[in-house]
DNA sequence: AGGCGCTTGTGAAGACGTGCACAAATCGCG
DNA sequence: CGCGATTTGTGCACGTCTTCACAAGCGCCT
């Protein structure tokens, strides 16, 4: 389930605040989801709630971390240490959430050798050797789109089966390899769509207006995320 | 539809390659989706394909850009010019996809006044004045989680109705305001989950193994993204 | 002009996710 | 010990999304 990480984060917050137990309602609130949905999700983990009381925060954290495979700290390789790569490499939020940036790679000789928060940037050709040493579990691609497919191929070649891709392009990978994409421009465009829809609706309250207005008003808007009402 | 931006990107690629028309199959391939799904999506835009030929690339681009509200270049305000904020501010991919970073804000006096790719960082208290001048459409939050809710409130106060949030926390906003969240750690954790699942499955081919194995094997894995097989 | 191959648009079926509503279970308290 | 308050776990119904499959439409070639 894609919501598990969200629950986990909320649980960690609760744990730091001193809570020992949470009701499904409380946790659902903190995670921004429906309480029934949350209970259904958690019931799939093997039922660790006590009726009348709620869920044991610590136990639930352990459960979710186990299911997510966070009991072992996974090694991440970051390829492409440019604008975005620098930010990622210097981000401490990964370490606190179960990951360890194990190596940085770039193709630019100017960047090779540079040290970023304790790690030295290596040439991408060294990937096979480093992968063998570090047992990389996840590869992150932060190169321009033109280079992304080649980098993906290289990652797959050294045995990486999970890739997080920041380049705005579709990657083709063998079956068994998971790819997730983060494209900020797409996020903005989805927001822009909503803006446009809102604007059209307020401008033409009941007329129906242009074909586009009817379209955007009548169509389902399900992007896997939605606004959280007050 | 959340897939429209993906189609748009693929279409721009095709246009640059000199294609004048595309079949649904071709475009679906380029965007990484099923062709039937793509046709159904496009049919909602008002049917601009020619049977036996395909879709006119240029026309389709115009259509999608109109629906997404990209005919006007929307102004984006970026709040929090730290590690990540710098990368975002210096990213030229926004400009080419219909957006204009109109202003940068930070609360740290040390950062106020700094110039990043032609824009001067302003203090977040100036937001009301600048928003009035620039008619900000979208706000991007790249502050620590602790400050995110306050910043969101400030953005809403000046009339922003679309927010892209990079901080790992749930934002509460009034109805009518859209929030999208990008949490990199969550992306990694989802990948980690798949890694764990794959490992469990290969380790215990048919036994069923632990409760967790049965769980992860039997449960639906739908995270809004999936691997693209070869 | 006619036929043929290709492509779109869509009906229908199935899978999936969501949320309500309620029974079962547990705790605390009198 | 029993009762009520509280909260979990889930059956069920509903709406949405996905995919297949195919008829209708279009252009090209003969
Ligand atoms: N900067 C952002 O905020 C941002 C936002 C969204 C998306 N992106 C995307 O992230 C990617 C990187 O963006 P950026 O701003 O960091 O670009 P950048 O040009 O600053 O950095 C790219 C880096 O990748 C390296 N590189 C190029 N080819 C390589 C190869 N084959 N192997 C290894 N390294 C290689 C380059 O040497 C460079 O250091 C781009 O695809 C961009 O579209 C960036
Ligand atoms: N750096 C990354 O790669 C990365 C990755 C994923 C998520 N994030 C998230 O993005 C956010 C920013 O990360 P970062 O690495 O840039 O952190 P950072 O500490 O480098 O930058 C945060 C910036 O926000 C500013 N700020 C703090 N409070 C503010 C306020 N009230 N108003 C305006 N500005 C304020 C700070 O002065 C600072 O410049 C964090 O929530 C982080 O979890 C970052």
Tell me briefly what this model is.
The structure is a homodimer of 230-residue chains. By secondary structure, chain A is an alpha/beta fold. Chain A has helices spanning 4-16, 24-31, 35-43, 57-67, 83-89, 127-134, 145-157, 184-203, 211-218; strands spanning 21-22, 49-50, 54-56, 74-79, 99-106, 115-116, 119-123, 138-141, 162-165, 178-181.
- The main sheet of chain A orders its strands as 6-7-5-4-8-9-10
Mean pLDDT of chain A: 90
CATH topology of the largest domain in chain A: Rossmann fold
Number of domains of chain A: 3
Please provide the ordered H/E string of secondary-structure elements of chain A. Answer: HEHHEEHEHEEEHEHEEHH
Outline the structure in words.
The structure is a homodimer of 230-residue chains. Chain A is globular and about 60 Å long. Chain A starts with a helix and ends in a 12-residue tail after the last helix. In chain A, helix 5 links the parallel strand 4 and strand 5. The first copy, chain A, has helices at 4-16, 24-31, 35-43, 57-67, 83-89, 127-134, 145-157, 184-203, 211-218, and strands spanning 21-22, 49-50, 54-56, 74-79, 99-106, 115-116, 119-123, 138-141, 162-165, 178-181. A seven-stranded mixed sheet of chain A has the order 6-7-5-4-8-9-10, sandwiched between helices. Chain A contains nine helices and ten strands. In chain A, helix 1 (4-16) runs antiparallel to helix 4 (57-67) and helix 2 (24-31) packs across helix 3 (35-43). With 230 residues, chain A is α/β, with parallel strands linked by helices. Chain A folds into three domains: 4-67, Arc Repressor Mutant, subunit A; 74-182, NAD(P)-binding Rossmann-like Domain (Rossmann fold); 186-220. One nicotinamide-adenine-dinucleotide (NAD) sits between chains A (79-85, 105-108, 111, 124, 142-145, 147, 150-151, 166-168, 184) and B (87-88, 91, 93). Chain A binds a DNA duplex (30 and 30 nucleotides) through helix 3 and strand 2.
